[in-house]
Specification:
By secondary structure, this protein is α/β, with parallel strands linked by helices. 38% of the residues lie in helices and 16% in strands. It is globular and about 65 Å long.
Length: 358
């Protein structure tokens, strides 16, 4: 491992839409074989394709260790439903769920629902932060031992261990409690891409993992410091959140020692940072950036998942493992354990205990 912090690696398994769950299962199992922390599956209302959260819920029982992180758009979506769906993914994956919060900014997407017009990104990300906040509260609304399941008395739940969240946001209110018992991880892992300015405040306040884009290690380190300074201002612990550099990779070329950045490949949608080269070059870049303290790891998006993810796992990751820079097995059973994140206690149970002891 790095002398600084453990290296974290994740990969996107989306791309051209497929309508066969087996396609995504094969990619997730490949990532699992490489001991990657998690896979993401992108989604939006702007393109056709299967629902990412439903797909990962389908393949969860057929995988054992790798974390599963679908994109969930908070705009036009009921926060209570978001919380319930992500909690369900955590249950069916036995504690390996996360979710990447995103927003929907276009008028065309708004017309699909017909409930509200498009809004400015700053407003939508403020709402996304509130969705993340209320989701965490709903996951906490069941204490860990709220379920009794006593057939003799007919009692399933100890109602004293269920709590109303009574959340009032700028665009919605939620009373609670949740309808899904507290997830195995307590709170599934929240991921936010903080590439754009409006997303950074939500990321600093609510994300466990933040994806950023940078063309130099110095730039990545500066963004990580900014996000962590904002997080500290909100009372979060030192070292929170984890920050991963997002990199789109094309491993179809021979080794050529390129650097990431718009000049090393075609300009991609979303302003993504682009790498073109071979698996060894990519391993060298990851090792150099991580050793220099630029980030906690990398989120890799293969430009051709069927080809490039195999080269990432059996080439880049295998080389990092050979150099003792990346683990060869998952350290635990949950995504939080992979990432070195503690399982949080229910805020309501903690408050009740504190009041009892006062």
């Amino acid at each position: 491992m790095s002398a600084r912090t453990p290296l974290h690696l994740a990969a996107e398994i989306g791309g051209t839409p497929h309508y066969d769950a087996g396609h995504y299962l094969r990619l997730a199992r490949l990532a699992e074989d490489g001991a990657l922390d998690y896979v993401t599956l992108d989604d939006s209302f702007a393109r056709p394709g299967l629902d990412a959260l439903a797909v990962l819920a389908r393949i969860a029982p057929a995988t054992d260790r790798v974390g599963l992180v679908p994109t969930v758009t908070t705009t036009h979506t009921e926060p209570f439903h978001v919380s319930s769906a992500v909690a369900t993914l955590d249950w069916v994956s036995r504690g390996r769920a996360g979710w990447r919060a995103d927003v929907s900014t276009t008028g065309a997407e708004a017309r699909l629902f017909g409930r509200r017009p498009a809004a400015p990104p700053a407003e939508l990300w403020r709402e996304a932060g509130e969705v993340a906040d209320v989701s965490a509260r709903l996951w906490d609304s069941w204490e860990d031992d709220a379920e009794i399941r006593d057939a003799a008395t007919g009692r399933f739940i100890d109602r004293d261990k269920l709590h109303y969240v009574d959340f009032e946001g700028t665009a919605f209110t939620v009373r609670g409690p949740a309808i899904v018992p507290r997830p195995p991880q307590g709170r599934p892992v929240t991921v936010i891409d903080a590439t754009t300015g409006p997303a950074r405040e939500a990321a600093a306040r609510h994300a466990d993992v933040v994806h950023i884009r940078a063309t130099t290690p110095e730039g990545a380190a500066a963004v990580r410091e900014e996000i962590r300074d904002r997080a500290a201002a909100h009372g979060r612990a030192s070292g929170a959140p984890l920050v991963l550099v997002a990199l789109t990779v094309d491993l179809g070329d021979a080794e050529s020692a390129p650097e990431p950045g718009p000049v090393s490949g075609p300009r991609l949608a979303g302003g993504g940072t682009y790498f073109r080269g071979g698996p060894v070059d990519l391993a060298d870049l990851i090792a150099r950036w991580h050793h220099g303290g630029a980030a906690d790891g990398f989120h890799l998006t293969p430009i051709t998942p069927e080809r490039d993810l195999e080269r990432i796992v059996n080439g880049t990751v295998a080389l990092l493992q050979h150099r003792s820079l990346f683990r060869t097995f998952h350290p635990g059973g949950t995504l939080r354990e992979h990432l070195g994140l503690a399982r949080p206690a229910s805020r309501y149970a903690t408050a009740k205990t504190a009041a009892r002891e006062a």
